[in-house]
Write a structure and sequence with these properties.
mainly alpha; elongated
Amino acid sequence: MAPLDPERDRAILDATMELLSEVGFDRMTVDQIAKRAKASKATIYRRWAGKPELVVDVICRRFDMDLPPGEDTGSLRGDLAALFRGLCESVERKHTLVIGLSSTLVSNQELARTLRAHMPAKDLGEVGALLERAVERGELAGPVDPGRLFGVAKALVWHRMIFTGPPIGEPFVAESVDGVLMPLVRAWAG
């Protein structure tokens, strides 16, 4: 990717995000993005190969799924609740854009492929650390795959956002941690 003035870059990404929210991926054009960002199409195409790459950049840079710093609460249940609460807050922040793109990702395979190819790998160090602390404290019989735990936690939050809707509060956090995550983690640890 060619270097771009940070202000120009921000204006183009902002315009893309605004248009995604207003008209959706299918109806949004690079011409519209250029006009709103007060940039030329050539400037956009020097930085991004096309509309899918531009949208993926918006998703990856503006709406990453980084985990909040791990909190050592002194218990597996407390650590899981803190982690899950942070995940809920992260998903709530990006809910509108992702919901708006979800049908497009199903129908537009080019966009879906581009997103999968460029999505940064998730650093699950915090999840691994909280699981290791639980083993050291004797709360878990053995190790648990952090990716497996994070996958289930994400699925719970996204299912809630898509089918029930926000807001996500403490009752949902407690129900998910106590009714799903704690029993699963204990079973997986043996």
